[in-house]
Amino acid sequence: MSSAFAAGSVATRYRSTRDPSSSVSFSQALLQGLAPDGGLYVPSSWPRADVEALESETTLARLAARLITDFVAGDPIAPQLPEITAEAFNFDAPLVPLDTDGRLAVLELFHGPTAAFKDFGARFLAANFARLRTVNSPPGSRPLTILVATSGDTGGAVAAAFHGRPGIEVGVLFPKGLVSPTQERQLTCWGGNVKSFAVHGTFDDCQRLVKQAFVDPQLREQTQLSSANSINLGRLLPQAVYYASSSLEVWRKYGERASYVIPSGNLGNAAACIWARKVGLPIGEVVLAHNVNRTVTDFLHTGEWRPRPSIATLASAMDVGNPSNMERLRALFPELADLRTAVTAETVDDAAIRNRIRQGFERYGQIWCPHTATAAEVYERVVAGKRPGRWIVVSTAHPAKFSEIVEPLIGRKVSVPGTLAKLFARPTEFTEIAPDLSSLRAALSVGRP
Ligand SMILES: *Cc1c(COP(=O)(O)O)cnc(C)c1O
After folding, report:
1. pTM of this prediction?
2. For ligand 1, atom 8, which residue shows the shortest CA distance?
3. Domains of the chain (ranges, CATH numbers)
4. CA–CA separation, 179 vs 174, rounded Å?
5. Ligand 1 mutation target, pool 179, 233, 318, 374, most atoms within 8 A of CB
6. Which phi and psi angles does 260 have, rounded to 5°?
7. Segment 370-428, tens digit of pLDDT
């Protein structure tokens, strides 16, 4: 694959947000997830995109390979990148116009196997892990176990992406009774190499268990543990691809930059957009749309970083009180004034989310999930009629995943896409465990010689 970047093939290294002095390769950053000092991996130096070369690509998979190639330069995985992106990017991210003059469009990121944008990151990460596994591990070595704590969407996307991969096992931990019935089905319909654990506790208990597992000597002897958490570089980087494709589409048509309103929680999706702009894609403004979890909105106003417990909202996948990827944004823009120029943020409450779901249907015939509606509300509030340009509202999930919320508001049934219907038809199976490490240890050993 030829490079999309002018600078050519200098090896790209990744450093922790907390320590600029040491660095690791791309695949080391993927396997480690979090840096040893607790920081997040960011590129030590930034490649520069060759926009013309990118524009010549006609599929998302090929655009992905060209965009990502200099991010993996010098890594043992690099020669396999075209194969990896062909496997990961096998569904579309269409840009759907909402008006006739091309001022407003919706970027639909929900056409993957679990009908949410997290499929892009999870599938790219899984395609990498499957290959790193064969490159790095001798036959007969310990299995690789991916542990993921989930309050809903992440676990489903990760399970789907890793299901059926030889040599890799997945443990999905979710709080019993605290995820929606639709979500529970997606977390428990896998079997095979994916084990689902309904933890008698909260999401925080699930997360604590995963952290404890990582430092438990007994488990580490049994298996090689890794995480598919959203802070993993391998989940973030592929998300830059749909910002590249959609901004280039706008650029081709109108010769103008695209600006985005992004439904945000942990800021992984938004960070990917800002990375795409950083390497030179024609991207203008980036507006973060948050629910009432206002940590980021308040920070941009006051300059004070005050994480807090999360508040439950209709846009539940964005119920994050301490968004981890802010650390990546602050690494890129250490000065508050620069960060404020780079992004703005707005907060939307549940009443406004409901109202926007209704309005979206009445005005545009669009059926939006609560997360997408949060972004559409921010567009109406701060952009429409005030800020010129070409705007894209990012749609992060299919509304059928949130039919309990959406259907009463629009007064009709939401049809379920084929991919989701297939999942819903599978039998479900899970193991209930107490919220302690010995229960998790025992459950993970089931079926192992
Ligand atoms: C995870 C998720 C988000 C938030 O994305 P971040 O990258 O965490 O900001 C928004 N919408 C949906 C549907 C999600 O699953």
Report:
1. 0.93
2. 266
3. 95-115+234-416 (3.40.50.1100)
4. 8
5. 318
6. -125, 145
7. 999 999 999 999 999 899 999 999 999 999 999 999 999 999 999 999 989 998 899 99
